[in-house]
Amino acid sequence: MSFKPLSAAVPALVAATMAVSMWGTMSQQAMAQSAPANLTYDARRGVFSFAGGIEHALPAVVKVTTLGAERSSTPEGPKALQGGSGVIIDAANGIVVTNHHVIEGGRNFTIDLIDGRLFDAELVGADKATDIAVLKVTASGLSQVQRVDSDTLRSGDLAFAVGYPLGLDQTLTMGVVSGLNRSGMGDSIEDYIQTDAAVNSGNSGGPLLDSRGRLIGINTSILSGGFGGGNDGIAFAVPTRIMDFVVTQLLDHGEVKRGQVGLTVGSLTAARARELGLNIVRGAVVHDVIPGSSAEQAGLRRGDVVTRLENRPVANGGSVVASVGIVTPGASLPLTYLRDGREMTTSVRVQEPLTGQALLGASQAMARGLTVQRAKEGVQIAVVEAGTHAATAELKAGDIITRIDGRAVGDLSGFVSALQNGSVAELSVLRGGETLEVQLGG
Q1: Do residues 99 and 206 make contact, with C-beta atoms less than 8 angstroms apart?
Q2: Which domain holds residue 315?
């Protein structure tokens, strides 16, 4: 097994350590002077350590326990449903950030501090699409973390995950930022930081810190190849760029108010790039443009490939969804795209969400969080928007809707007509050769 160095400073550290073990004559003062500038040397103990940069942030990392309702309580109190971690970002107001899936289904919540204190917490709001939730605790003597703009991160930066994994007390693990702008893990707003810092069950909602103890993301999920769901060195965190927007919305409104631009997009694959005569595999292909939308007004068409949005590179379809999903309606986003191999620029205005409306496009239709396309029998689901009635009904991309309220769905216009009135609809869905009956809220 071979190991790659975390940074160019590691060989210098190894050489310095060997020098001490071989000769033992180097003074601590000389050692400190010769230490690489980007490593911390504890002269008193004679060791290299990141404790000085990290320790001040640890009191802000909390354990979150989600409890059931009082009526389902045990004699000892409400029953614990699940747990995770969290981080205090505003000590004066007791604001704690965690994951949506940590608090999901709970009625009561508690916060454990590293000093042993335990407090009840109030749920301010939660956003399933980004897996972010905000709790509020009333307590004195709280600590908070300093936040840093996640757009300043680079692959190879050191990263520290802190939380309460696998029933243990507060635990710190170290790794690097393995990648940025990761998506494709589900029907969510995804623009994750990838890290190889060990993250396990119980770390959810805890902070990902840089080497100075500053918050860069909220640990939210892992990619595991084992049956036990343990750490395989691939973990994902919601970046502070997204977290800050969601937290502000939840504190101001109790919910997240998002806009839309009227685009349905997919990731640019190597096969699709060859079809379009392109020699790139980074970008988002426009599958459809909703009539009358700001995307149509901006001149975008089916087959365009978005390469930059809001002056940020677009890695895939998830990049577009994430960028639009954290912008309030009314803002204009500069956009760069390719058409017939030529680079073009435009600007798209973020519109108010079209909740409850059914929209018909040239090759796709949208309604109640579903984007569908033509299929041999009925219409096939292409996209399920997180946090919508469709997601709650557990509909999935690839499902084929054959009937709505007992009537056959023959085409896109039939789908739109059936869901236009906003009432609860009964869907017959074909999945894996089986027909399912699904209730879709209005």
Answers
A1: no
A2: 263-349
3-state DSSP assignment of residue 335: strand
- Nearest in space to 241 (alpha carbons), one of 177, 198, 192: 192
Number of compact structural domains in the chain: 4
Could you tell me which residues come within 8 angstroms of residue 122 by beta carbon, excluding any fewer than 6 positions away? 109, 135, 136, 137
pLDDT at residue 5 tops 80: no
pLDDT in tens, 126-138: 998 889 999 999 9
pLDDT of residue 18: 40
| DSSP type of residue 262 | S
Residues 90, 131, single domain; the answer is yes
Mean pLDDT of 317-325: 83
In this structure, the answer to whether residues 199 and 244 fall within a common structural domain is yes
* Catalytic residue numbers, as ranges: 101, 131, 204
Contact 85, 202 (CB under 8 A): yes
Of the residues 300, 328, 349, which one is the last residue of a structural domain? 349
- Here the CATH number for the domain that contains residue 281 is 2.30.42.10
pTM, full prediction = 0.71
